[in-house]
Amino acid sequence: AEKLDSITYSDVESSSGRIRPRQALRALKKGMVPDSIVSTDIGNICSVSNSYLSFKHKGPSMLAAMTFGNCGYAFPAAMGAKVAAPDRNCVAYCGDGAWGMQLNEVMTCIRENVPTTAVVFNNGQWGAEKKNQVLWFG
User: Fold this and answer.
1) Per residue in 63-77, is it b (16+ CB within 10 Å) or e — as a string?
2) What pLDDT score was predicted for residue 13?
3) DSSP per-residue letters across 23-82
4) pLDDT higher than 70, residue 10
5) CA 67 to chain centre
């Protein structure tokens, strides 16, 4: 978590003032503690973030919903990982749509003192669903 705290907005900002997802993912990779466990949600963030993750720890380090399509997977998976491996940093990469399905788990983290980090990528839409709707229905 200390390395992640050192990432500044200027490390990832674009000329428009918005943070580009790939720039943010590169900065997160740069600041990631080597033995971290990362979980990714479904949608655009899952497919894009997989290109930027690399792990050196021998144990399980990547948790992903893959093709099951269960929206709201990343944060509860990171919570479970933190309970199973309390000495490791656990981070969930979530899209803003899926994040809304995981807010109850935030209360559980607070109540049960499970320190888990969530990185929420906000593109203001259900990006993967929007793409599917356009592809399938025009």
Assistant:
1) bbbeeeeebbbbbbb
2) 54
3) HHHHHHHHH--TT-EEEE-SSHHHHHHTTT-----SS--EEE-GGG--TT-HHHHHHHHH
4) no
5) 17
CA atoms within 13 A on the CB side of 123: 16
- Tell me what pLDDT residue 43 has: 75
Tokens of residue 55, six digits: 């792990």
- Measured in whole angstroms, how far is the alpha carbon of residue 41 from the centre of its chain? 7
Q: Check residue 28 and give its pLDDT.
A: 87
State residue 121's pLDDT score.
Answer: 87
DSSP 138: -
69 pLDDT exceeds 60?
A: yes
